[in-house]
Amino acid sequence: MLKKKVMNRSIAPAVNNEVQLTKLQVEKSTINGVEVNYVNGGSSPLLKLELVYNAGSKYQDQALVASLAFDLLRDGSKKLNGKAFKEAINGLGVYYGMDISKDFGTFSFYVLEKNLDALLVLIKDLIIAPNLPENEFDRLLQKEKNNFLVDLEKTDFLSRQKFAEVLFAGSEYGRVAHAESFDLIKYQMSVEFIQQHVIEAPFDLFVSGCISDQVKTRLNSFAKELPITKEGAKKIAKDSSPQIGEHIIKKDSEQCSLMLGKKMVNKHHKDVHNVSITNTLLGGYFGSRLMQNIREDKGWTYGIHSTVLTYENAANLVISADVLKDKGPDTLNEIKLEIEKLQTELIKVDELEVMKNYLKGKLLKSFDGAFEQVDRFFSVDSFGLDWTYYDRYIEALENITPEDIRATATEYFKWDEFVIVRVSGEI
Amino acid sequence: MIEFKNYTLDNGLRVIIHQDESTPIVAVNLAFDVGARDEDPEMTGLAHYFEHLMFSGSKNAPDYDIHVQNAGGQNNAFTSNDYTNYYVTLPKTNLELALWLESDRMFQLNLDEKSLEVQRQVVIEEFKQRYLNQPYGNNLAQLRALTYKDHAYKWSTIGKEISHIEKVTLDNAMAFYKQFYAPNNCILSICGDVNIEETEAMVLKWFGDIERSTIERPTKVVEPKQTSERFEEVTEDVPLNAFLWSFKMGSKTDGSFAVADLTSDLLGRDESSFLHQKLAIELKLVSNISAYVSGDRDPGMLIISGKLNEDVSFESVEKEVWAIINQVKSECVSAFELTKVKNKFETAHIYGEMSVMNKAMNLGYAELLGDVNGINTELSEYEAVQVEDIKKWAGQFLTEENVCRLHVKKESNE
Question: Using an 8 Å Cβ cutoff, are A415 and A295 in contact?
């Protein structure tokens, strides 16, 4: 029988909130038009390779062109394609993705160092002479159409689509697929997209992990041997004119999906860090005002989140939640009240301290390991910024005051600039 | 190879400590040996609901989350049919805070009507968001119910129905807590740049005086052997017809798991797999198709599922699935094919060893399965699999008497 000791648990162990961020040295060079970036760290035999092209969805003339083009690249090269290509690349144990965002088209590969050479041969053939067969395009189009039909049944998808359209009205960033997009797209458009933006086009290469000199030599000569004849040209997306106000979509469902937000400042702006911190307070972590109010106090949702998203030529705030089906308008009202509170009341020092400490720890974790660091580096490098961005962030975190937060909320979270999308069975 | 120190406290708490000097982050993981399989069939979903309640705060730390946030930490939890897992990562200097917090909520959780009611509503919204408000969201639960007649795997962790969650009382929750949230039902794993001796002392300090509980689990039900094919068709408001099959298989620990897992990879892990190549690319019968194993402590399932292209019959799809299966059963796959799926496993395995959080979680899970050393033998178990093993395993398990077929038919517009 255990004897129960009386142990004093009431005093919490002391917490240390100093953060020492160890940023890995990024080795940067330009080889044959390819911007090569090495983020070297750790001891695992696994490497991450990313080839980033100026080939995001903003470069397409109509919806689906870019995403289908990149899907089609999964078929391999003229030399090795279809089943043979898929067997070869999977046979190397490689995990890979060919994805587009609004700004970039990216090939990413996780590969064991021992299989790097064989993988580079496959990549080289792929980007020099991709296969791009028409029958595979037709299959992929059908697949996308099927996925789209499934998505149309999801209230959160409907809200996301509509939100992009009304927030980015007038901009390439607001172009989303509709049922008719599947009839308008033609095989040739995706082929031309690849010819224009990938074949013989320059790209940024990001390599992370334990990068030996041998690996560097191999990758440098890979870059050097590529035929790159095009100039890197970045497109600037048009500025948007958001359709302010509430947009309602009727859809019978178990829940009501909300998505709302507004334009926001980008990474170059002096206030970007204060905006980010203020957003965290509003809805950027579990302890946020929105999460505590809508989930933890009222139980109306499984989760409510607020995020600042940045693109090359735009930035926005987005708040999203799936809530009880009859609580849509009430939730919107609570969000409005929480924002007003930020604009009128000063945050208590305790709450501010907790959030700062949380963000410092989160930052530390987001720099844990080369794979994490390369993501952090890319997200500043792609804006022409460098590691000092994070030094400024830490500085802002250390120095931000309750008054700064109130001022930031007042200037950047104006309710009458919000676009609001509500998808619900009950209107 | 992951090196670790493991031992058991007098009160039954199993402890695993792994040193990783390369990271500023420490991970603390608690795996409790309680999951949906331990639930009363009339009160399903309780284990998962209770996971939410574990964040209600404890006697000395009334707000768990605020303490974690203030220490620069991040935390979360999940519940499976087999166990419930809590994890927190934070700067290494704050390890003791995590141990204090975790021990305090094991020692004396604050439970009240308010948090019970709020979390009840949150869990019901989670039920809707992830299962009911998604096309095909509930089909896996339907497949479970078709596959298991007696065993508790017949319901999902979210619960069989919302009404079960609605009737949980504070007494039910307290009884569940007292029984299952005790040191003798928990595995604590810690990974990071820690000093082992100091960590041991901290663990003893905060967890040493928590009392054991007496655990009475429901009598273990052995699922009777299936002797003939089962079939069910449901009609739902979905845009495309879909099919889901299950084959009953062994448990995670019965020695054949690696063979089963690699067989499912060969069949449908990625776009180079047999099913995807044949049915999606070559014949264009489905828009997607995949195969995977559930990986459970009791005998589990190998699941094959896919969505049919328009105007394609279930019959034509299923005929081709059988053709692929029969091929795997009648002739050995090529050495290349097997090496391919082994290589993919190796990459994933190595990736999994790159973060302290994964390592802490995997160490705890390996111990839960019966032997923490399993974490270091897993890769060689997969490497040892031969093409004949695949053929033999498929012949034994991928049979017509052992299949459960679910058709999800779209509502006709007429």
Answer: no
Give the whole-angstrom CA distance, residue A291 versus residue A302. Answer: 9
Q: Are residues B89 and A368 in contact, defined by beta-carbon separation less than 8 angstroms?
A: no
Is B81's pLDDT higher than 90? yes
Interface contact flag, B347 A93, Cβ < 8 Å: yes
Chain B contacts in chain A segment 29-68 (CB below 8 A): 42-46
Testing the interface with A: which of B122, B269, B346 to mutate, by most A Cβ within 10 A? B122
Domain boundaries, chain A: 26-224, 245-424
Kindly state whether residues B236 and B200 are assigned to the same domain.
no
User: Do the chains contact at A299 and B118, CB–CB below 8 Å?
Assistant: yes
Domain of B402 in residue numbering reads as: 230-410
Provide the CATH topology of domain A26-224: Cytochrome Bc1 Complex; Chain A, domain 1 (3.30.830)
Tell me the shortest Cα–Cα distance from B285 to chain A, in angstroms: 10
The CA distance from B175 to B43, in Å, is 13
Are both B202 and B117 inside the same structural domain? yes
pTM: 0.94
For residue A2, pLDDT beyond 50: no
Q: How confident is the model at residue A3 (pLDDT cuts 50, 70, 90)?
A: very low
Angle, CA A336 vertex, CA A335 and CA A342 arms, to 5°? 90
Whole-complex ipTM: 0.93
The verdict on a CB contact (< 8 Å) between A2 and B271 is no
Confidence of residue A232 (pLDDT cuts 50, 70, 90): confident
R_g over Cα of chain B? 23
> Count of domains in chain B?
2
Task: Please list the residues that pair with A262 across neighbouring strands.
Answer: A317
